[in-house]
Structures are given as structure tokens and as C-alpha cells.
Amino acid sequence: MTVQLPLAFEIASLVVLVLILVADLVLAFKRPHVPSFKEATLWVVFYVGLALIFALLMLVFADGEHAGQFLAGWLTEYSLSIDNLFVFVLIMARFNVPRKYQQEALMVGIIIALVLRGIFILIGAQLIESLSWIFYIFGAFLLYTAFKQAFGSGDEGDGENGFIRLLRKRVDIAPDFDGAKVRTTFDGKRMFTPMLIVFLALGSTDLLFALDSIPAIFGITESPFIVFTANVFALMGLRQLYFLLGGLLEKLVYLHYGIAFILAFIGVKLVSHALHANEVFFINGGQPVEWAPEIDTWTSLAVIILSMTVATIASLLKMRHDARPARPEASAPSAAPHPDRTPD
């Protein structure tokens, strides 16, 4: 018998998460600054701790399966969110955002992303409920994405997508920032500042990443509540993680392989699940494929943790190897004196 999460727990969780996000947003705007390494570390530890406490509460109010699904989903989203940071760095550099105001930009971008992801999750949940074959589409898309992640060129563009370029043509944008303000006066005319472009670039770019991450987490759980809360917890500490990792991001050279393996694994899991519950008439006569395995939540969790651990350790080992000073070449032996030449 499947244990359901109490409705009161779901409502209380969403209320608390909204309050935390609002407090974080207010704090970012009230105290614009560049977080120190210690401050960023403490915030990241705080948000990771919150996620673990939330998983424990799910264990208490439901069962280990729900807690495991949340942990696996959260780790998947967190891994993919770290990958997002590479693009966030490009966007900040592309628009020359003053470092002091990058916290606000990241926070607003994350809020926009959460709203858009919430809509995307509701649509995905409805599709899964009414169209079981959608798992074939999700699985194939994740396998394609995994291939691109592992063997693509890694070129993320200049930080502007089509939506941002269209906005530039339609809206008057001031040439300079005015703190973290979205509107300013330039040459006697009210205009939007480049911060508006930055907010929307971060939010819309993250939505594009959601095209990978949302199908991935639906491969772990079909609960919209777990999918959404896993996304919230993965994104909440993202701005602090941005400052914590700093230049380390570019040195985690094998991270994308770990992420690609996770996406490929979940893609295979989705296709296997679709086969196991098959209703497509041209596959096995519309009957379930009995030999298709059902990969459990704890196996998924183990694969996700192992993949990211191996990718991170391999990257750090390479970083350490590259940092070693080059070994001096052995001195060439001195040439023997010519037999016809008398030494001085």
C-alpha cells in the first residue's frame, strides 16, 4: 500500500519555503555585498542541512520511499543546478554586472525560475497522468541531452537567448546600471536598466535548463510535490554556491561527464519504466514488456551520488596534477672534446 504525504505537511512545507525565499530575497536587497568565503560556506551548509531535515521529516510523516525519492531528486537537481552556474558566470560577465549587485540578480533570477518551473512541473504531471507513453519521449530526450553534455562543444553562447534579443529591440535600455534598480532616468527619460535584462536572462536560461532537469526528476518520482520541493531546495542556496565555488567551476573539468552519466541513467530508467507499463500498440502488441527492469529509488540515489563523487574527485586530482611545477628537463651531457683539439 502506497503511503501518502499528509496534506497539512505539504501545505506547511510550501508556506515555510515561501517565507524562507522571501526572507532571503529581502536580505539580498537590504545588504548588497560580495559574500566572504566563510559566509557563503555557512549559507550553503544551512540550505543543505534544511534539505536533509526535510528528507527526515518526510521519513517521519510518510516512509523511506518518499524520503529516498526526495533525496535522489534533490541531488539530481542540485547537480544540474551546479552546471547552471557555468552559464550564470557567463551572463554576469556578458552584462558586466557589478559584483556587489550580483546577489540581487541571482536571487531574482532564481525566483523567476521557480515560478516558471512550477508551471512546467504542473504541465509535466498532467502529461504523465494522462499519457503514460510520455516516458518514452522524456527518456529519449534525456539520452540525447546526456550525449550532448558528454560530447558537445561546451559552448554556452554569449548569455543572450532569443527572448533577450527580442526584448532589447522592443524596450529602451539605459547604457549603465543604477545599483540594483530596474528603472532609472537617463537623459531626462525613464528607461529600464540593464539589470532587467540580467534578471530575465538568468530566469529564462534556467527555464531552458529545466527542460533537462524536470524530465530527469520525473524519472525518480511522479509526485509533483516532491518534484517542486526538490527544485526549491536545489535552487535556494544557488546564489551562495555561486560565490563559494567562484573560479573553481572552470576547474571541475569532469563535472559534465558525471552529469551526463546521471542523465543517461535516468533516461534508461524512464524508457525501462515505459516498457514495463507499455500501452503503445506497436511495441509488444500494446502489452507490458515483462523483462524490462524497474530500477528502484535507492539504486538511483546510489548512482547519482557515485557519479558526482567520481566526477568531482577526478576533477580535483587533475587540478592538483596541473598545479604541479613542470619537472626540469635533465641536463644534456657535456660534449666530449674533439680528439684533434687540445684543451686549454
Please render the helix and strand layout as text:
Elements lengths: L6 H24 L6 H25 L2 H31 L7 H29 L3 H18 L10 H9 L12 E4 L2 E4 L1 H25 L5 H13 L1 H8 L9 H22 L20 H27 L21
Antiparallel strand pairs: 1-2
What sequence of helices (H) and strands (E) makes up the elements? HHHHHHEEHHHHH
Structural class of the helix and strand makeup?
mainly alpha
**3D shape:** globular
The count of strands amounts to 2
The helix content is: 55-70%
State the end-to-end distance. Answer: 99 Å
DSSP helix count?
11
- Across the major sheet, the strand order is 1-2
Q: How many whole angstroms does the radius of gyration measure?
A: 25 Å
Low-confidence stretches: none
Number of domains: 1
User: Which percent range describes the beta-strand content?
Assistant: under 5%
Indicate the mean pLDDT.
81
User: How would a textbook summarize the main sheet?
Assistant: 2 strands, antiparallel
Description:
It is a single chain. The protein has 344 residues and is mainly alpha-helical. It has one domain. The protein is 67% helix and 2% strand. The chain has 11 helices and 2 strands. It has helices spanning 7-30, 37-61, 64-94, 102-130, 134-151, 162-170, 194-218, 224-236, 238-245, 255-276, 297-323; strands at residues 183-186, 189-192. Strands 1-2 form a two-stranded antiparallel sheet. A hairpin with a 2-residue loop joins strand 1 (183-186) and strand 2. Helix 3 packs antiparallel against helix 7 (194-218) and helix 10 runs antiparallel to helix 11 (297-323). The longest helix has 31 residues, at 64-94. The radius of gyration is 25 Å and the shape is globular. The model has no long low-confidence stretch (mean pLDDT 81).
